[in-house]
Amino acid sequence: CSLFFDISPLTGGNVAFSTLEGRPSAYNFDNSPVLQDWVTATDIRVTLNRLNTFGDEVFNDPKVLKSYYYAISDFAVGGRCKCNGHSSECLKDDFGKLVCNCKHNTMGVDCDACQPFYNDRPWRRATADNPNECLPCNCHDKSSQCYFDPELYRATGHGGHCRNCIDNTDGPNCERCRDEFYRQGPNARCLSCDCSLVGSLSTQCDNYGRCSCKPGVMGDKCDRCQPGYHSLTEAGCRPCACNPAGSTAECSLDTGRCICKDNVEGFNCERCKPGFFNLEPSNPHGCTACFCFGHSSVCSKAEDYSVHRITASFDTGLDGWRAEQRDGGEVPLQWSPMSHDISVTSNNYLPVYYVAPGNFLGNQLMSYGQNLSFTFYMDRRDTRLSAEDLILEGAGLRVTVPLIAQGNQYPTETPQTYTFRLHEVSSYPWRPLLSSFEFQRLLHNLTGIKIRGTYSENTPGHLDDVALLTARPGPGSPALWVERCTCPTAYQGQFCEQCAPGYRRENPSLGPFSPCVPCMCNAHSDSCDPETGECYCRDYTAGPNCERCMDGYYGDSTYGSSVDCKPCPCPSGSSCAVGPRLKEVVCTSCPAGTTGKRCELCDDGYYGDPLGEEGPVRPCRVCQCSDNIDPNAVGNCNRQTGECLKCIYNTAGFYCDRCKEDFYGHALTPNPAEKCKPCNCSPYGTVNQQRSCNQVTGLCECLPHVIDRDCSQCEQGFYNILSGQGCQSCDCNSIGSTDGQCDIRSGQCECQPGIVGQRCDRCESYHFGFGLDGCKPCDCDHEGSRTPQCKEDGRCDCKEGFVGTHCDQCEENYFYNRTRPGCQECPTCYRLVKDKVNEQRQKLKDLEDLIANLGTSQDTVSDKAFEERLKEAEKTIMDLLRDAQNMQEVDNSLMDRLAEINNTLSIQWGRLQNIKDTVDITDDLASRSTNRVRDVEQMISNSRRELEKELSGSIATPDSSGDPNNMTLLAEEARKLAEMHQKEADSIEQTAKDANDTSTKAYDLLQKTLAGESEITNNINDLNRK
């Protein structure tokens, strides 16, 4: 407050009061809450404490004291609305009172409070730097009411505490569900937990609506028992007492009765159903069906078997594995000594399979329900799987499975182990689906295991570590899956695979799968062969069912008595029979060779006297007929003497040991085709027309010049066997016939061409030249010859004016006249031309003689002999050099002489080489000279032909009339032609002269060469002497 006092009373004076004057924080007003509170007034009170009485109070006179007074005549207050910085103006309310027009979510007369729902932080006065507006509460749209909570603000920095949250939410910000509610997401609705009051530990659940369950209870609401539990109560669920090997680990929720696997029974699934055994956890059906070859449904675990593995590791080779295509074609296998595996490749789209060897096959019944495993990989990941990647075959059955079945992986470049359970359960899944009995029957006679090795073209597949789990008798880890059957009366054996004594297979072809039925032995045996059913007979009975008496006994064994069969009254204990009418005992199996009711006679094919009726006793023996009788015939020999009576194969004799008359051969040979054959002698070629022959060789006696075994052919060069006197000689001309042979009936010889006559001894008409090639045709011209027949030299007899071998040319200076057939003599003027031509012909003949002498008068040089002598000289020189070298250690002085000799030899060798080159040049010159001479001869021949042509042209037929004309012109033309040919002849003569000179030079050069050769020979001889 502010005080005012003075000694003197103040009348009409002013009392002033300032709230900020002299205040320490007057210049920091916005940040001084104390000062802000100081200047704020809601009421103003003026207190008049006392008056100055100048001491009159001491006297305490009321009248005097009442005369003192003071008063306030005017009162003025200067100020503004207090809006705490949240408003810039004041407005009058309904009562005329000024109130602030609040901003920043504030309210109140002085904006001294936050509006409802804007309480997230404490209210603050606005400043020049910060408006300090009120912030809304964060209620997640679940409430529209809140208040400021200082504790919450200190804890979280947000003081807005929501009220009356909706949608079952709760919390300062309605950020969570109420107790016993949950939601699965931030914006999801809160749902009731609905936890079971019996099965849950609390009525509150988690954010997923799951309640906390009591022991053995499950479910989001804890409203049911867990698998393996039953009977929900306040204490939870009680555990099922199920056998884990035989149950699914679940039981009835109400009764606790366990849910068993397919082949298991019992309240707790503790035992196998009838017909099953070996309760084990790994078996999806719990127990394995009894196999027992189908004869029993009662079995148990065998105690004396141990686990065994059939393996193939390919450490040393293929281990007997092979590969084949789907169609069975063989495919080569590759073994890797580095990786110890096998591989196979297919060059087409057809898959190739690995085929297991015999140790994996056969009776693999003890692998039922066990695993077949192997390691497999490919060089390239390019897989085309199929339903037949693994194949099992056996007992006429076949099952397949894909490679990726039973949880196996796709094949890659990395080795992986593939495992397959050999069981028929559908989830594995072998196709076609078999029953348990059929699957075990397949394994009992397993004939094939095929593993697919290729899945694409040209990509190898690799196989390793093949293993088949099975069992075998003996100590070791127990194999509890092997059965031991309790067999019915008719069966025995561990698997009821055998028939019991007194029983046999009803169908032996089925083997151990066949039912066993009682033996049928007519009471003469207690047992029989279990496979064939043949009885082990006694009481002298026999037969598969003891249905007859054994050999040597007779009677009816079907009566079932021990005395049904009695001994036969026959020798050697042979068998007998009782006649149906007379009931007489007759021996049926007499000793070999005997017959009769009591075996008293020799049998057919035997001889002797077994009872001695005609003399001494002779046992019956087989008749010896050399195998030349029909064994099926009766009476082949005499039963007393043994003589053979019915020989066959054309044999005869006491023992059928020779061929009969008119037959020959080997009667004793075992081959019937090689025995006796008919002689078949020809009546025309044999002496006196005999038909018999030598019985061994079969040769018939032939007439002269008749041959062959049967005398049916003439000798070569003979004929006419039908004469009956032998064959006659063909007598063919050796020149005129082709081979000296003739027709075997007519005697006509086969002639050369143009030759005739039965003996081919003359030329055919109009032929000539009888010789080895036959006769040639005359071919005489019919117009120019006098007759078609020619002379012995083939020349025809020509008419006048005709010439030539065949008379087919006009004589020189004759011409052919078509009007008058024949050759007509030319006019006289043509004789001049003829004389000129004859002169040229003579010159040409002289030139030809000269050239002929030139080609034959020169000596020839033998290059081959010359070279051989050179080689001999070279060899001699080399031998001499080697001898000289061997003598080097003997005499050093000889070395100088040898060096001189060697030098001389080198010089002579060079000369020899020069001489050889000269000889080669000379040979070339001689060859060229010979060619030039040949060219000259050819030119002369051509000139001659041209002269003859010109001559022929000069005398050719002028026209059809045959009369000559223009004779002077023709004569002049002939003279010019003759002069031109004279020049050509001179030129030819000069060429021949040049050739002669060249040949002379070649001859001189050869003479020099020969002289040099002689000198070399002398030098070599001197060297040899040294």
3D architecture notes:
The chain is α+β, with helices and mostly antiparallel strands and 1026 residues long. Among the domains are: 1-79, no CATH class; 317-471, Jelly Rolls (Sandwich); 503-589, Laminin (Ribbon); 592-678, Ribbon (Laminin), CATH 2.10.25.10; 780-825, Ribbon (Laminin), CATH 2.10.25.10; 863-958 and 967-1025. Helix content is 20%, strand content 22%. The chain contains 9 helices and 68 strands. α6 (830-857) runs parallel beside α9 (967-1025). The longest helix is centred in the last third of the chain and has 62 residues, at 893-954. The chain is flat, with a radius of gyration of 75 Å. It is found in: Secreted, Extracellular space, Extracellular matrix, Basement membrane. This is Laminin subunit gamma 1.
